[in-house]
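Q: Entry one of two.
A:
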Amino acid sequence: MFQYQIIPVTHFQENCSIIWCDETKEAAFIDPGGEAELLKKAVEKLGVNIKQILLTHGHLDHVGAAIELAKHYNVEILGPSQEDEFLLSNLPQQCMQFGFPYIDSFLPYRWLKEGEHVKVGNITLDILFCPGHTPGHIVFINAKDKIAFVGDVLFKSSIGRTDFPRGNHTDLISSITNKLFPLGDDFIFVPGHGPMSSFGNERMTNPFLV
């Protein structure tokens, strides 16, 4: 059975998710944006085994603890798509810009592309390429349990910003309407910040989309 816990981290209150397979206790972080010690304690309390770190995009508030956690658990970092390489290579400058503690630039063990799959125990996550907020943004889809981890593409009653370098509003709206909404109104999603919602609720009520 698929399980998850959302842990908001840093003053950006970014939603880091710990996901795991109940049958195997294998687990992964999605977007560990900071506060590595807090996340380690959560893993210990859950009694799960971290096997990988998954990134939706390259912004600092979503990747800030990735390297420290990868070294601590001796696991690989997967994602985002290679179009976000410029962001991961620019992490020290992002730290200065947003007042974060210094983080070295890094590249993932493997970039992820649409159509690929990631396994967490007996759980399969499908990859969707959803650019707009960043050019290499991806989304993790658990089709069986009808839940998506969408990073900063879509929020409850809002959408991702596109005023950052290489953001594109047209691409963002296309990602939401042509990639996410067709998955079904009953799909729930974990956004990068703020409360969860469903694609159906956002399709019908989101003021940026109706």
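Q: Entry two of two.
A:
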Amino acid sequence: MQPHPTPDFRPLGRKAYGSIPHLPGSRTGPADRHLSPALARLCTERIRDARDHVVVLEKLDGSCVAAARVGDSVLALGREGRLASQSPNESRRLWATWVSANTARFLAVLQPGERLVGEWLALAHGTRYTLTHEPFVAFDLMRDGERLPWHELTARIGAGGFMTPGLLHEGGPLGIDAAMARLQGGGFHGAVDPVEGAVWRVERREGAGVRVEFLAKYVRPDKVDGSLLPENTGRSAVWNWRPAPGVPSP
């Protein structure tokens, strides 16, 4: 009989996803860090040469989660790398149930040792969404600590029919004001409240391949993390999505 995993068990032996540094002017918390001015300029002002490629995406406000393929199994994980099924958080347990119901879709995308990382939007954290699509939005496909390039990510996840964040820009740099202007009116995912911000991906062509050099994010200065969560409000949870009637919850 297999022992029951402890709450601190991390199947990958690591976090499922790390933190992304902030661009200048972005709202930060105590544990956050800013990108260096030189790298920030690559995102927003001037690239080095034609081999640089910048992708700017809407930043979503939910829970960062991952689905990791281990052999022919798919494990639902939280950002910190723990099993979502063991979480005390109902939204994380819903993620585990959702992954189990969609295992075939994840297996169609992932090779052994890979994980698909994205935003789980079931529970409203600080932004409410009127979702017109499923509650998982994928933004990274990873092997160990390496990200696959954006074009490879979007090509691969087509096999599973997964959604990606709204694309604001692709090509050269894009300024913060220009990016935020493109998110007016609710962004691409039905935000009822002001959109949280945007994420910049800087990739670089090397020979026949492309390498993801770094990511950066901008969060609007008036954003309050977790402003809708019950532990912060003392009120009931606000859900963007719940299972349909008749579908068992965890």
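A: Comment on entry two: The radius of gyration is 18 Å. The chain has six helices and nine strands.
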